[in-house]
Amino acid sequence: DAGVIQSPRHEVTEMGQEVTLRCKPISGHNSLFWYRQTMMRGLELLIYFNNNVPIDDSGMPEDRFSAKMPNASFSTLKIQPSEPRDSAVYFCASSPGTERYEQYFGPGTRLTVT
Amino acid sequence: SQQGEEDPQALSIQEGENATMNCSYKTSINNLQWYRQNSGRGLVHLILIRSNEREKHSGRLRVTLDTSKKSSSLLITASRAADTASYFCATFRYNAGNMLTFGGGTRLMVKP
Predict the structure, then answer these.
(1) What secondary structure does DSSP assign to B16-65, as a single string?
(2) Considering chain A, what is the average pLDDT of its residues?
(3) How far from B99 is each of B9, B44, B88, CA to CA, in Å?
(4) CA–CA separation, A61 vs A59, rounded Å?
């Protein structure tokens, strides 16, 4: 298996622009998680899905952030409009959702908003 | 708020020495997991210990869990320069959904 796939790996955009991050989870995993990591705030859970349904989005910082999972093999995290404080590394992770509940992380998308 | 808190925040040792990292948490758990993150990479699952287990081994890794003290430790024996990374503990509770709650991590540097 290729593991969790994220794209793009790097994104540089100007303030006010829309940013879309993409994630393909490991096949057969039924849970998907979006995290944000910065030096100041560490690793933060933004939102997670079980069987394509959003379960907890309490970590989404503002209405500018939205996430979708239209099917079991694809999810997007969108920021519109982007702001410099959104600069961070965004990780997607998936989990088989068995009794162990370990998570498998993608390589991340490094977002820079100027 | 973070469930797990790692201690120390940073650790620097010489190659060949043992490295011990600690994690404390606040509520009851079903399992505790340790992850490693190399610079610029995603987190990688290392080892999982269930709440009814006290010690677990995997290669040079040894994890202990004390549920009465709500704490865990990760020991890396005979460290190597390649062990340089950040290490995170994460707790799992069934009634908290399928999510993990991560701590702030310990940055380990192993000097050759």
Answers:
(1) TS-EEEEEE-SS--SEEEEEEE-TTS-EEEEEEEETT-SEEEETTEEEEE
(2) 94
(3) 23, 16, 15
(4) 6
Say what the pLDDT of residue B3 is: 58
Chain A with chain B: Cβ pairs closer than 8 A: 52
Note whether A98 contacts B: Cβ–Cβ < 8 A.
no
Q: pLDDT band for position A1 (50/70/90)?
A: low
Per-residue pLDDT of A74-113, as tens digits, reads: 999 999 999 999 999 999 999 997 777 899 999 999 999 9
Q: What phi-psi label fits residue A9: left (phi over 0), alpha (psi between -120 and 50 degrees) or beta?
A: alpha
Percent of chain B residues topping a pLDDT of 90: 82
For residues A66 and A48, give the distance between their C-alpha atoms in angstroms, rounded to a whole number. Answer: 12
Across-strand partners of A88?
A111
Chain position carrying tokens 């940013």:
A19
Please count the CA atoms within 13 angstroms of the CA of B38 that sit on its side-chain side. 8
Instruction: Kindly state whether A25 is in contact with chain B, defined as any CB-CB distance less than 8 angstroms.
Output: no
A96 preceded by a cis bond (ω within 30 of 0): no
Label residue B5 exposed, middle or buried (CB < 10 Å: 0-12, 13-18, 19+): middle
B58: pLDDT strictly greater than 80: yes
Quick check: B39 contacting A, CB < 8 Å? no
Q: Tokens 């069934």, residue? A: B94
Q: How confident is residue B1, by pLDDT bands cut at 50, 70 and 90?
A: very low
